[in-house]
Amino acid sequence: MIDLNQYIDPVCLDKPGVEPLKGSSAFPHNVAVNTGNEPIGELDGFAVAIIGVPDDRASANTGAALAPDAVRKSLYSFSRLPGRLKVTDLGNFRPGASFDDTIAGLRDVLLQLLSKNIVPVVIGGTSALMPAIDRALSAGKQKWSLVSVDSRIDFTAEKRPSDSLNWMNDLIYRSGSGLSHLSAIGHQTYLTDQQVVNRFNRRHYDMMRIGEVRAAVHETEPLFRDASVAVFDIGSVRQSDAPGTFLPSANGFYGEEICLLSRYAGLSDNLKVFSVMEVNPALDTRMQTSHLAAQLIWFFLEGFSQKQYEVSFLSDQNSSRFTRYHVTLSDLESEAIFIKSMITDRWWMEIRNPAGEPQHLACSYEDYLMANRDQVPIRWTRGLLRYGH
Hints:
By secondary structure, the chain is of the alpha/beta class. Helix content is 29%, strand content 20%. The strands form two sheets. Strands 1, 2, 3, 4, 5, 6, 7, 8, 9 and 10 form a ten-stranded mixed beta sheet that branches. A hairpin with a 5-residue loop joins strand 12 and strand 13. Helix 1 crosses helix 9 (288-306), helix 2 crosses helix 3 and helix 8 (255-267) runs parallel beside helix 9 (288-306).
């Protein structure tokens, strides 16, 4: 166990000139904020820990190191969280002498939080920090899955040192990585190398272009429900809504859309780490981008406070919580099994791995309707391939 006080600087913000919400109605009222008056203790009972990482090395996005406090300043101006979710704001991770030191130290901090079943909310910084998340989740040699919300796919065909534009290479090819599946949401075709798309398709990754997301945004929810990590690059938002980023685009998600996706992440049973990256206050206009990033975090936490833990009960065939549907498809040797929650209306598919053990993959009602039309859903096919069929 490490002493978090050796790795983290307390929260230190100037008092705002205008406070629309004060006292018991404001966000900090039911959040334990590390102000440095007392050392960080055991953190028992907390479900979520916010941690800023003011380090923008290994990236051309100089100025992103200013993001954690800028985002925090907006977040603290919001209303208090509903329910009794226990959240702590630990403060900012203390950058290492080198960027590799930052990765190693952040990995240790995240690993300690994860060992206590605390979900870290990481405020970057840049996407170059993602290898630290990988190393923390992979430390126990466990498999994990990732959802990346970005206008680009941060993967390059050529070999070069890991940075904020090719961090996926490190995760996909590192021998010790436990990354088992990746979902890319919101990429724009004219910003994406088609060879990378083809490579990801061969790996059976889930990919939804921004147009596909906008046509059926609810279809992203199952991707978040199966994910261990959700990373939001603020560059996935259109420049008019989020100007404070190094690689802005005239097109992208609207603010309302990206907040809905972050709420989906909060509702996920499986999510272990949530992060918002690439905000650059030095390029921002009247803190517009920092404010939107803070909204992503607030909606994630609001979703987290409303989540229903259902995955652990899916194998109980006698549970009244679920209804199981058996569908015969002419292209399958056995029945397709779909499971619907009678509480949340969420759907899963039950797929057997080569050992005959049931595996449950999140899906949508549309997948069930497709199976009833004697069409094998693409999620079913990808699920079989993921489990070695």
